[in-house]
Design goal:
The chain is of the alpha/beta class. 32% of the residues lie in helices and 13% in strands. The structure holds SN-glycerol-3-phosphate (G3P) and calcium ion. Belongs to the glycerophosphoryl diester phosphodiesterase family.
Length: 392
Amino acid sequence: MEREQQPGRRALLGAAALGAGAMALSGAGTAVAAGTSGEAGTATAGAADSGGVHGLPVPAVIGHRGASGYRPEHTLGSYQLALDMGADVIEQDLVPTKDGHLVCRHENDITATTDVSDHPEFADRKTTKTVDGTKLTGWFTEDFTLAELKTLRAKERIPGTRQRNTLYDGRWEVPTFEEVLQWAEREGRKRGRRVWLHVETKHPTYFRKLGLGLEEQVAKLLRRYGRHKKDSPQFLQSFEPSSIQRLRKLVDAPSVVLLSTVTSRPWDFVEAGDPRTVADLVKPEGLKWIAGFAQGIGPDLSVIIPRTADGKLGTPTSVVKDAHAAGLFLHPYTMRNENSFLPADFRRGTDPNAYGDAFGAFKVYFDTGIDGIFSDNADTALLARADFLEKH
Ligand code: G3P
Ligand code: CA
């Protein structure tokens, strides 16, 4: 089974979530509202939602790892396609190199997403480590300088599921965060608007212990490119609340606490002996605590609508209502078009790699009142949003 197989308010960044100060529309933000794609252009926030910071469309479509349904993830090719499709926001996951540069990878283990195993000069870097309690064998970014990493090429993570994406294997390098910031600046100039990014710190406690703290580097680069302000077209996200707390001391860009499945515990809680689980954090008291230092949450979709024993969508929880009551927006993750990722009631046929009824699933999730969604398939998400907005 390939990795990534998983059973799995309408106002984006509502005024309540960010306060009146954050509602001021900058020139760039107003331009964002206009969008560039047909679907996005018609999907601007309605009158009831005009408090959305910068007027981002609602629900916002966040290109998960770019357009990872169609291109090897976290490559400039993937980011470009997501932006060209009209995604409102483009996501990066960040890990460090040995010499402290930030690169865009979903994890520090680059075995599955680069051609590192084909490089005999790096054969002796293969090693076994425990990352956030999980034992892994492979090649890790923190054992490579940036110059060394730049000799590698990115490849498709799940070639069995997304065979077509393998066409692009070897085409792109592993991008640095700074290269992405420069790309976003170039694209913004071309389009007459700023490009929104959604940046995640990966394994921040693990890396800090290695002397490779992420947050200071993220803040430094955001400041260099003018993305550190509360009205910057920039979200910050982490599964570790302490990483968001650290970032909040360094920059003012809106931040999001990611929440995995209800039984899980953030890794920084595990290390600190904090017994709280995600189930605790999505209770009103937990949400109030998060709202003390973040503007949003990014829950696993199962936190919004749990799946039944047979993998179908169950009854929505009160998390959307409770988070909004706490002044938090919601950017849940991750919608993917393939049957293997969809709830059982939206699968079509028996081929796990074939597309199921993604539009049907998007509709159910949008109906819960979420403010945005991460999707590997931004184009599908945009059409689903257009359908949704037509009816609301
Ligand atoms: O960051 C939102 C979503 O990407 C979280 O899951 O594991 O894909 O980074 P992951
Ligand atoms: Ca992520």
